[in-house]
Amino acid sequence: MTARLTAVVVGAGAGGTLSIDALIDSDRFDLVGVADQSAPSRDRVAARTGVPVYDSLERMLAERPAEIVCISTWAPTHLPLTRLAAATPGVRGLLVEKPLGDTTAAGREILDLLRARDLPVVVPHGLMATAAALEIIARVHAGTIGGLRLVELESPRWDIINAGIHWLQFFDALVRSPVDTVLAATDTTTRTYRDGMQVETEAITLARTASGVRLLLNSGDDIPVPPDDAGTVCLMRIIGSHGIIEYRAFENAFVLMASGYDRAVVTVPPFAVSGHRRHLEHLADQVESGERDDANPESSLRALGIVEAAYLSARTGASVRPGAAPDQRDADRGVAEPWDPGAPYWGTGGGRNGRELDGPSS
Fold first, then answer.
1. Do residue 188 and residue 319 come from a single domain?
2. Which of 80, 166, 243, 355 is the most exposed place for a label (fewest CB within 10 A)?
3. DSSP letters along 235-253, please?
4. Considering only CA atoms, which of 143, 125, 101 is closest in space to residue 234?
5. 61 domain-assigned
6. How far apart, in whole angstroms, are the C-alpha atoms of residue 80 and residue 98?
7. Residue 70's domain spans which residues?
8. DSSP at 144
9. What is the sign of the dihedral through the CA atoms of 107, 127, 26 and 75?
10. Percent of the chain having pLDDT more than 70?
11. C-alpha angle 265-269-273 in degrees, rounded to nearest 5
12. How confident is the model at residue 331 (pLDDT cuts 50, 70, 90)?
């Protein structure tokens, strides 16, 4: 049997706890340390696991060298912690929690740095380790519901950047086509914050891919969902030219309505181990084989690009291309002064006559 890989976790919150438990459960790792800035969190981990605890990743790696580093802190800290881990002798692979960074540029730097050091990385998106979700992706790609047209998502108690990054990465996996434009609006009246980030009270995000598939995501603190769906973290409707799939994120079944099929509840047996354990053992496979698999990390980065574009769109009132520089929108659109939809047009301020555009009109 291959020798067990030594591992450490920095950050003992929700994501860190999932990594801690997965590393303890797996026979492919030895968890040798956990770091967290919070003394109560360190005390909790020490009492529950007996694993040595530290107040910083730097001190932990100095005293407990490890081959695997799990970065499970808030997004703004991911890049500096990745730099530290990648520069530490003996580190052979990383898990970096979603979102990869607080910006797309930070996420890109993380992946480029790890690729330059030939260090494999996994980003533990839960749906990519959920059997039913993977079955949905396979059926959509196989054409079960015809050509994909629209993915509609309702995500109560969550926001675009935190849980929303899961839904957007799932969308990226479904469509296999880059997002061209994003248009979003946000309500911020409650000044909600979550996981180290300022987030929306409610938002609506529209994204359109190069192939014409659309995403519609309604996220926020108090998104109403049908009574039968109370308690779901995200209700998904995946609409094709010949059918629909309805799915409640992370569940083991979905509803399929498609041409040639009776309406059916399709149940998929869950994987035997947790999502984080699947991701970590996939990381172990890469470390041991020397073969990198960057598909999901790159998909996660594209999802982060949609997140960033959505928030930029909400701030500026303009459609945004993922990856475009913030000042590019005005150059592209020729915006000279604010435009107020719903107000009378008095013949000044430039613009274009919508009646003279090509295509159908009423």
1. yes
2. 355
3. EEEEEETTEEEEEETT-SE
4. 125
5. yes
6. 15
7. 5-119
8. T
9. positive
10. 91
11. 145
12. very low
User: Looking at the domain assignment, is residue 350 inside a domain?
Assistant: no
Same domain, residue pair 216 and 299: yes
List the structure tokens of 84: 């530290």
Contacts of 335 (CB under 8 A, 6+ apart): 318, 329
Of 214, 254, 244, 219, the residue nearest 233 (C-alpha):
219
Q: How do the residues of the chain divide into helix, strand and coil, expressed in percent and rounded to 5?
A: 35, 25, 40
Residue 57: exposed, middle, or buried by beta-carbon count in 10 A (0-12, 13-18, 19+)?
A: buried
Task: Tell me which H or E stretch contains 255.
Answer: strand 253-258
Per-residue pLDDT, averaged over 138-157, amounts to 97
The mean per-residue pLDDT over the stretch 23-35 comes to 99
3-state secondary structure at position 35: strand
Average pLDDT over residues 307-336: 74
Q: Report the predicted TM-score, pTM, of the whole model to 2 decimal places.
A: 0.89
Q: What is the pLDDT of residues 85-128, one digit of tens each?
A: 999 999 999 999 999 998 999 999 999 999 999 999 999 999 99
The amino acid that residue 263 corresponds to is R
| Both tokens assigned to 255 | 């509803």
Q: Are 113 and 82 in contact (CB under 8 A)?
A: yes
Asked whether residue 153 falls in the same domain as residue 108, the answer is no
Backbone angles phi, psi at 217, to 5 degrees: -115, 120
Q: What mean pLDDT is predicted for residues 139-143?
A: 98
Spell out where 24-65 has E strands: 29-35, 53-54
Q: Over 60: is that where the pLDDT of 1 sits?
A: no
Confidence of residue 198 (pLDDT cuts 50, 70, 90): confident
> Which two tokens mark 6?
């030594």
Counting residues of the chain whose pLDDT is more than 90, the rounded percentage is 78
CA neighbor of 165 nearest in space, from 355, 274, 310: 310
Write out the DSSP string of 264-311: EEEE-PPPSS-HHHHHHHHHHHHHHH-----HHHHHHHHHHHHHHHHH
Q: Nearest 5°: CA angle at 195, between 190 and 310?
A: 65
3-class secondary-structure state, position 170:
helix
CATH number assigned to the domain comprising residue 277? 3.30.360.10
Residue 333 has pLDDT above 60, yes or no: no
